[in-house]
C-alpha cells in the first residue's frame, strides 16, 4: 500500500520559508509562535520541537483536501498547536476539531497497540520514537509488502518534510532500528 499522503501534504518543521501571513517573519523559527497560539507554558520553536504538531498539521491538510502552500501550512500548524497540545505545547493525545477556511476537520486520535494491522488496512497512524531523551514523532501512512522488517513501514517525517521508511527515520535520528524504539502508537482518522 503506497503512501496515503502526497508531497502536497508534507510539512518540514524546520522550513524557514513558512511566514506569518502578510509578514516577513518565519513562523517555525519564531520563539513567540507558541505564545501567539495561546500556549503560555511553551518554550522553543516548531523547528526545535514541533514534530507531533507538524504530523497533526500534515494530517489536517490531508483530511481537508488542502495543499501545503504557505497559508495552509501556517494555519494547519496553528490549528494543530491549538487543538492538539497542552499549554506547554505538549501533544495531548486527544481528538479535536479544527476549522481551515470554510472546512470543519475532525482529527480523531486513538491509542492503539499495533500499527501493522491498521496500516495494512489503509489507515494512517502516528508513532512516537523514543530512546532516553531522544524523541521524535512521524506519520505512518503506507506499507511496502516487498520490504523487510521496519523498512515495510512508509512514513511522512516532519524532519525534512519527506517520505521514507520508518527504518530510515530511525537511523537518521539515531534510534535503535527495532520495535522497542516505538513507544506510542495512535490511529488518526
Radius of gyration: 16 Å
List how many beta strands DSSP finds: 8
Helix content: 25-40%
Helical stretch tally: 6
Major beta sheet, strand line-up = 3-8-4-5-6-7
Topology as a string of helices (H) and strands (E): HHHHEEEHEEEEHE
Beta-strand content = 15-25%
Unreliable sequence segments: none
- Provide the residue-averaged pLDDT: 97
Multimeric state of these chains?
A: single chain
Coarse shape: globular
Our measurement of the CA-to-CA distance between the termini, rounded to an integer number of angstroms, reads: 17 Å
| Structural class computed from helices and strand pairing | alpha+beta
The largest sheet is:
6 strands, antiparallel
Write structural notes for this entry:
The protein has six helices and eight strands; from the N terminus they run ααααβββαββββαβ. By secondary structure, the chain is α+β, with helices and mostly antiparallel strands. The strands form two sheets. A six-stranded antiparallel sheet has the order 3-8-4-5-6-7, with helices on both faces. Strands 1-2 form a two-stranded antiparallel sheet. A hairpin with a 2-residue loop joins strand 1 (96-100) and strand 2 (103-107).
Write the layout of secondary structure elements.
Layout: H1 33-36, H2 46-49, H3 51-64, H4 70-84, E1 96-100, E2 103-107, E3 109-111, H5 115-120, E4 124-131, E5 134-143, E6 153-157, E7 162-165, H6 166-172, E8 182-188
Antiparallel strand pairs: 1-2, 3-8, 4-5, 4-8, 5-6, 6-7
Amino acid at each position: 500500500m503506497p503512501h496515503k499522503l502526497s508531497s502536497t501534504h508534507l510539512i518540514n518543521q524546520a522550513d524557514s520559508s513558512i511566514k506569518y501571513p502578510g509578514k516577513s517573519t518565519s513562523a517555525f523559527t519564531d520563539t513567540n509562535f507558541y505564545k501567539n497560539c495561546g500556549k503560555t507554558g511553551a518554550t522553543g520553536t516548531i523547528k526545535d520541537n514541533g514534530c507531533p504538531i507538524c504530523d497533526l498539521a500534515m494530517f489536517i491538510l490531508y483530511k481537508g483536501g488542502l495543499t501545503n502552500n504557505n497559508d495552509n501550512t501556517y494555519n494547519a500548524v496553528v490549528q494543530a498547536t491549538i487543538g492538539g497540545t497542552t499549554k506547554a505545547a505538549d501533544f495531548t493525545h486527544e481528538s479535536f476539531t479544527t476549522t481551515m477556511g470554510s472546512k470543519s476537520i475532525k482529527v480523531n486520535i486513538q491509542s492503539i497497540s499495533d500499527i501493522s494491522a491498521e496500516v495494512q488496512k489503509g489507515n494512517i497512524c502516528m508513532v512516537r520514537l523514543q530512546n532516553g531523551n531522544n524523541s521524535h514523532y512521524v506519520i505512518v501512512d503506507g506499507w511496502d509488502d516487498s520490504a523487510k522488517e521496519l523498512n515495510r513501514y512508509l512514513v511522512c517525517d516532519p524532519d525534512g518534510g519527506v517520505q521514507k521508511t520508518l527504518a530510515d527515520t530511525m537511523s537518521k535520528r539515531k534510534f535503535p532500528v527495532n520495535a522497542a524504539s516505538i513507544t506510542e502508537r495512535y490511529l488518526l482518522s
